[in-house]
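Section 5: illustrative case.
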């Protein structure tokens, strides 16, 4: 008897629940937007306008809105500020003024100011929102908290939002954060962990306003819509280099308390320029409208970035900067800042698409113009027979071929996408992009504007408006996820650490900078093109580091000597080897390098392996100067050392590596196996005139070099190119290039390091040519150059 009744009651209850559920579903939806820091600079300049824009876009599409401007400012003062800001809001140019006025009045009605300071204020805000929603018969679908506040306030605010201001069940929460997101990897991690204890990842929207710039937001759609044309071009075979640039005319005056702590790399390179870099470099997802795929591909691009070295950067500081810091931060007259206001960085990406392509990132304050752009310059191997006057922009292979994402300002004055006409005619969505009108006389990146297909947005939109709309539409790919943020800091932090004491080059600012900041890259190193002018700015802790001293240049045994502290010396030698390689490959298509073994070159190998991005390894032949008669896999083998410290880190084609054949058929270095002859034949077959481009030697404490030992005549003269020798120390059997062969080289570098070498270095500096006693003294290239690289310990003791 009981059961049907219970059943009925249950059914009735379910119906009521279902009905009320359905009713709730049917209720008009409301989104509340709470702007914290609503009276601040950013909010007044951009955020209120962005919110108004969102309202204009979304009104009548099924959502009701409420806008709560909040700050620490008292209610009265805040209301006053907000009233003024709301009054100044503008509609898009093509909207009828009557309609604009009507919508603006509605927006003003829906916006209020309130003080948000204490935990109770948050509770009250939440209650008020709930009451208002209920009162108006709406259903709350979500809350957006936009934190336009300094980051030190994030954690408190986050705690308050989480504990008392989350919307009810079924409604979403989005929390928007403004940079800086940390100062380095550690602080970014810390902040991320703290925020992560209050919010889910999908609830956080970290803003990088460059991702809201129309042209930046167009990079992926452009790549997607022009896949057919770009597929074959967007890679190392065709791209010469990529430049990602943000130049500013303004300086940091008025912001030095922030700037002093951050500097240009943290302020714009770590975020804006890196974001742009990933959009250019990432593999294009099949579906570019899928935020998840975009974010995942972006992360992969981060993972392929090659670590930066100290020499990947050039730094500058405009001359007035330290004075501004002293004034604004009340520092003593003796204070000199080392904070860079200008940086050029060379980035390489280690994947098949981009290997070897330089990505140049550059930004600076107090430069000659304000402009931001990405320039993708394509390689050009064409030679045009007809004279220039017959070149036709659309067909000539001789004109520069480039794609420019012109982010803004500059001579063009507006954002644009430019594709040189000799590349292809790009497709851009015609509803939102129009062809740029001709501007006779305007030249951009070496071409008249008319040589480009040029498109600009039909309606220019400010970055924040776009981002606010993307927050509303849940477009997470326009924001910086925790993973991406940390990946970026992983990339930048080691460089920032290594540059912490670097004295920047000082520049006067504006047009007066002339060529002072021009820089160039050779191998993996960036350096200013002009030599350093006199500058006397010792920085706050002015005790110079050993590495601050100049590399000493002198003569040793009548040949050039370079002397420095070990680290500097190795860097210099590696740079010189790379320069020789680049020159040789440019002239002859290949570079023949003969390397010694032992412990001194290990640091050099490591430096070459990790720090030399543009070394032409693919065209380099590696030879051994000498070898111990042990199997090639033996740890004592010179080849093993080369393999461990260099070969396994670089991509030298296997057939370009020439180990010495110490182990052929019989015993190790058996005369009858004719290994030395075989090596000599290989050299003769591949190295023109047996003249290596560069031979790297060392000097033993007994004056030996290669495996040519005192009192042992083998290899000191005669016809033989490669010889078997006997070493006084084990393993005794050796194979070595002969002195005559060494002396045929175009360049011989002798690396001598450590206090142990001091005595022999002194001795050899005084003796004449007597290779039987001191084989090293027999090194004097017939027509090539000899350079001695000695560290201070070896040279000065
Ligand atoms: C900000 C930096 O993020 O970007 C400023 O903090 C810089 O130093 C600004 O001036 C540049 O942005 P935009 O939009 O003017 O290129």
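Designed sequence:
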């Amino acid at each position: 008897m009981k059961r049907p009744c219970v059943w009925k009651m249950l059914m009735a209850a379910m119906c009521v629940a279902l009905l009320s559920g359905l009713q709730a579903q049917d209720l008009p939806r409301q989104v509340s937007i709470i702007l914290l820091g609503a009276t601040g600079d950013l909010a007044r300049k951009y955020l209120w306008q962005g919110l108004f824009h969102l309202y204009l876009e979304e009104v009548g599409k099924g959502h009701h809105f409420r806008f709560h401007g909040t700050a620490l400012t008292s209610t009265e003062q805040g209301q006053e500020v907000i009233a003024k800001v709301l009054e100044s809001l503008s509609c898009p140019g093509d909207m009828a003024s009557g309609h604009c006025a009507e919508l603006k009045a509605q927006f003003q009605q829906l916006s209020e100011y309130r003080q948000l300071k204490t935990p109770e204020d948050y509770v009250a805000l939440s209650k008020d929102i709930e009451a208002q929603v209920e009162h108006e018969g709406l259903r709350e679908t979500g809350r957006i908290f936009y934190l336009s506040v300094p980051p030190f306030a994030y954690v408190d605010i986050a705690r308050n939002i989480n504990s008392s201001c989350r919307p009810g069940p079924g409604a979403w929460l989005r929390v928007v954060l403004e940079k800086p997101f940390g100062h380095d990897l550690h602080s970014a991690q810390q902040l991320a962990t703290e925020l992560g204890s209050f919010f889910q990842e999908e609830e956080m929207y970290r803003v990088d306003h460059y991702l809201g710039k129309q042209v930046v937001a167009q990079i992926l759609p452009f790549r997607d819509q022009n896949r057919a044309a770009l597929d074959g071009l967007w890679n190392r075979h065709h791209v010469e280099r990529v430049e990602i640039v943000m130049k500013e005319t303004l300086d940091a005056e008025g912001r030095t308390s922030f700037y002093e702590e951050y500097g240009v790399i943290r302020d714009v390179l770590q975020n804006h320029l890196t974001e742009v870099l990933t959009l250019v470099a990432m593999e294009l997802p099949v579906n570019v409208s899928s935020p998840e795929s975009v974010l995942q591909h972006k992360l992969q691009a981060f993972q392929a970035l090659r670590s930066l070295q100290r020499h990947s950067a050039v730094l500058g500081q405009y001359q007035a900067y330290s004075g501004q810091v002293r004034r604004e931060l009340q520092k003593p007259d003796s204070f000199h800042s080392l904070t860079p206001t200008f940086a050029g960085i060379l980035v390489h990406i280690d994947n098949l698409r981009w290997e070897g392509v330089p990505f140049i990132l550059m930004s600076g304050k107090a430069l000659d113009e304000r402009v931001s752009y990405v320039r993708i310059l394509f390689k050009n191997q064409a030679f045009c027979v007809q004279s220039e006057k017959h070149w036709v922009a659309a067909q000539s292979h001789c004109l520069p071929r480039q794609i420019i994402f012109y982010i803004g300002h500059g001579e063009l004055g507006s954002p644009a996408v430019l594709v040189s006409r000799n590349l292809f005619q790009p497709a851009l969505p015609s509803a939102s992009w129009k062809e740029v009108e001709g501007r006779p006389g305007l030249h951009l990146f070496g071409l008249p504007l008319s040589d480009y297909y040029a498109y600009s947005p039909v309606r220019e939109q400010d970055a924040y408006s776009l981002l606010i709309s993307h927050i509303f539409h849940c477009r997470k790919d326009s924001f910086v996820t925790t993973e991406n943020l940390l990946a970026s800091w992983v990339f930048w932090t080691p460089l920032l650490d290594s540059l912490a004491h670097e004295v920047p080059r000082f520049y006067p600012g504006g047009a007066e900078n002339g060529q002072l900041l021009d820089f160039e890259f050779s191998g993996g190193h960036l350096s200013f093109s002009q030599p350093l002018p006199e500058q006397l700015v010792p920085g706050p802790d002015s005790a110079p580091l050993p590495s601050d001293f100049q590399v000493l240049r002198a003569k040793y045994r009548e040949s050039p000597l370079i002397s420095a502290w070990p680290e500097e010396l190795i860097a210099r030698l590696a740079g010189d080897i790379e320069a020789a390689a680049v020159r040789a490959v440019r002239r002859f298509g290949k570079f023949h390098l003969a390397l010694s073994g032992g412990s001194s070159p290990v640091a050099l190998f490591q430096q070459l392996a990790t720090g030399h991005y543009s070394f032409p390894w693919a065209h380099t032949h590696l030879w051994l100067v000498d070898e111990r008669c042990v199997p090639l896999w033996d740890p004592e083998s010179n080849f093993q050392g080369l393999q461990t410290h260099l070969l396994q880190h670089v991509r030298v084609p296997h057939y370009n590596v020439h180990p010495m054949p110490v182990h052929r058929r019989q015993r190790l270095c058996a005369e009858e196996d004719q290994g030395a002859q075989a090596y000599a034949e290989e050299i003769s077959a591949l190295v023109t005139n047996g003249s290596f481009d560069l031979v790297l030697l060392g000097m033993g404490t007994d004056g030996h070099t290669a495996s040519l030992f005192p009192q042992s005549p083998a290899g000191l003269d005669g016809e033989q190119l490669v010889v078997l020798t006997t070493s006084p120390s084990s393993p005794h059997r050796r194979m070595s290039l002969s002195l005559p062969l060494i002396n045929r080289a175009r360049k011989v570098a002798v690396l001598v390091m450590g206090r142990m070498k001091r005595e022999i270095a002194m001795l050899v500096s005084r003796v004449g040519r007597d290779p039987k006693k001191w084989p090293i003294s027999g090194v004097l290239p017939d027509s090539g150059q000899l350079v001695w690289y000695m560290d201070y310990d070896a040279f000065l003791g």
